[in-house]
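pasting 5-methyltetrahydropteroyltriglutamate--homocysteine S-methyltransferase for the record, 373 residues
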Amino acid sequence: MGEIELNNRIRTTAPFRADHVGSLLRTDAIKTARLKKAAGEITAEHLREIENDEIIRIVEKQKETGIQVITDGEFRRAWWHFDFLEGLDGVEPFSAESGIQFKGVTTKARGIKVTGKLDFTDHPMLRDYAFLDSIKGSHTAKMTIPSPNMLHFRGQIDKDVYPDDDEFFHDLAQAYKKAIKAFYDAGCRYLQLDDTAWAVFFSEAGEEQIRAKGTTPEKLRERFARSINEAIADKPEDLVVTMHICRGNFQSSWTAEGGYDGASETIFDGLNLDGLFLEYDDSRSGSFEALRYVKRPNIQLVLGLITSKFGELEDPDTIKRRIDEAAKFVSLDQLCLSPQCGFASTEEGNLLTEDQQWEKLKHVVRIAEDVWK
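structre below
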């Protein structure tokens, strides 16, 4: 039995001591196939066959790193959030005038809008998860979907459909409740909600943006928390639900900065989640002092101390010292380690190679083995 398996005896359920956020660099085969599909040179069925083959390959590569959790790398998506949100009843894509602005780079243009009452009746990603589940072997398969807050944060809402925000957030939570049950029925026992919306509370500029939209940071924090807690209120006991809080990740760039302080009490003591994936790979993320608001002994905090933005490996001793710093506020037993984000939040991917990606995951495993002996 390998050392990582021995360590996982300490933590036999997700999130694991060595974990990862989910998305992986798209392979050349995937990129080529998607271009051919867009050009009408191959069918959707042929594209899916190529995706299946590549997902099988990258699942085996994940297993080789020693990590216990596997994902499909989000290989069937162009975006980490839009692709899922468009599958909700009442949501439609549209051609936006411009992309999302990151530090020094802009995404391609794409948008979503709420044109009808929100609901969840079926979704193509249920089939996607079922395929991942069929090849997981003894590993744990994780499904990643955007947090419900992302529809409010990135979507245009027709006020004729939802003149009242409370009704919108209620219907959104109910749609997600159905989605969570559907993924559970498909076999999912580890579900992650990805969320960049919380970062709007982390800076004065973000809070000014909230007020410009006619509400207050206090009211929006409460709504965000309520939508998540209502969505997971009836989840089965054996379903682990975590949330990844991010400040943006596109081609190794970012959108937001600031520590968790602007929403720390809500995030760490107001969300009924099983775990939180926290971005802590550079100074933009602030200090660990925000962790003082962690009151629950049964919530796991996955420290994103390894960057997914660049290929250079961090000094292991530096990472261990940072884990020790976090352990001054939260028990070491409640901490885990991962990259701060995925490697490809969109199909373009971050600025590192696939080999560097796998080395990053191995690096997480090696450090976790040393820390949680």
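Residues 3-23+64-371 form a domain with the TIM Barrel fold (CATH 3.20.20.210).
The first strand starts at residue 69 and ends at 70.
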